[in-house]
Amino acid sequence: xxxIEWTEATWxxxxxCTITSPGCTNCYAMKxxxxxxxxxxARHYDGTTLTSKAxxxxxxxxxxxxxxxxxxxxxxxxxxxxxxxSMSDLFHEDALDAWIDRVFAVMALTPQHTYQVLxxxxxxxxxxxxxxxxxxxxxxHAAAHLWGGENPDAIYDQARRAVMMPLPNVWLGVSAExxxxxxxxxxxxxxxxAAIRFVSAEPLLGPIDFMRIRRPSPLGxxxxxxxxxxxxxxxxxxxxxxxxxxxxxxxxxxWAESIVQQCAAAGTAAFVKQMGGPVKARMRPxxxxxxxxxxxxxxxxx
Length: 302
Known about the structure:
Elements: E1 9-11, E2 14-15, H1 28-39, E3 49-52, E4 55-58, E5 63-64, H2 67-70, H3 72-75, E6 81-84, H4 97-108, E7 114-119, H5 122-130, H6 132-147, H7 152-162, E8 170-175, H8 179-190, E9 196-201, E10 237-241, H9 253-266, E11 269-274
Parallel strand pairs: 1-6, 6-7, 7-8, 8-9, 9-10, 10-11
Antiparallel strand pairs: 2-5, 3-4
Helix pairs in contact: 4-6, 5-8, 6-7
């Protein structure tokens, strides 16, 4: 299960990563991967980190998890919300398409679950997901290989039919810690077919004006949030949070307040996760006016 307030469980079919923007500086996954590697309990983590004066840091090595990890959602009948790849980035530039195919195969074969995929590589996400209708054969074969059982042909056909985007049980999101990263990543997200599109503004390192972000449309609208009823390609959910752990950087209350207000005005779900601080157990409580923990209305849209 998971200690992350907005999900139920984590699922890590791929491990390992690299630092790509300021939000990665105090990456909790990097430190956790180092601890796992030192314990020697999960050999696929070997070589993903090295020890430095600042502690464990990513080496850039990625690894596909063994099949008992990869197939974990298939063995769980109870509907569960899974955060995908808390210890990596599914759309990392060095993640093989064949690996991502396997992940999508598992997600396609488990419609009882909900999957939350969060990336900083929005361009790779847009390219891969946009091409999924042309990759249904690859994903179908991946599913048959992973979970063929006594009738792999039936599994292949099931997965091949299921890989029609947007998958209704897959939420796609991007991390955006400041305005620059929001400007860079959110247009890719808005151009990507998804049942739910979301943004994780955590750690929030500066103010973000979602109304200035260009929506990919023939009219070139300047808002990532809804301006009129019926507009497509908008954000369904925004998570806000301050940084936690040693060296945590400060989040201004006003930055979080602005995002909550923007969401309220647009009818977008908002979730304030935490205010941040170096020690999570002694973190400042969320002020009453920011104790907003909404979830998006699940619906399929293009």
